[in-house]
Prior knowledge:
Distance between the termini: 39 Å
Structural class: alpha+beta
Helix content: 25-40%
CATH superfamily: Hypothetical Protein Pfu-838710-001
CATH architecture: Beta Barrel
Shape: globular
CATH class: Mainly Beta
Oligomer: single chain
Strand content: 35-45%
Order of helices and strands: EHEHEEEHHEEEHH
Amino acid sequence: MSQNIEIEFKNILTRREYEGFLEYFKIGKNQIFSQENHYFDTPDYGLKSKESALRIRKKGEIYEMTLKQPAAVGLLETNQIIGEEEASRAIQHGRLPSGIIQRLIEDYEISFSTIEYFGTLITERVELEYMKGLLVLDHSIYLGKEDYELEYEVENYQAGEKIFLELLNQFKIPTRKTENKIRRFYNRKYEQTNHN
Length: 196
């Protein structure tokens, strides 16, 4: 189990802006890797109502279950490495592995057994070291939709914000209110559920 505070800045990009970054940073196809994020919640969005989110991510051959919860600055991430069989049971049958994340969710008075699989978001990702932070370019595909995004992960909020805004300005990209992937996924899921 590991916990860390995530401080990141993000901005939705158009496809053209995204391709402009790939070109500027000379990103080759071999530098782009794929991540699968499988999202879970209760049928009545119990975790979402607590500003929290649960995912299982496959990155290479490793599966990691992550609970994101609000923190004073950024998000508190609790990570639990799980096996392929545990991930498969969670995705196919909605049976999540026990451990620290189960205890944290039950602290919300949400029954772990009511959590179900919501869907998958696939991200084609590029990560670059940039000005003492991690610059991330993402192309995400989920629930019949796709989007492009620039993220900048840092240790220091003020310094990170300044660098991020300068980068957007350099590329003449307006700052756009950007929800995180989980929120965008949930919004799309909610639209589909309530319009079918």
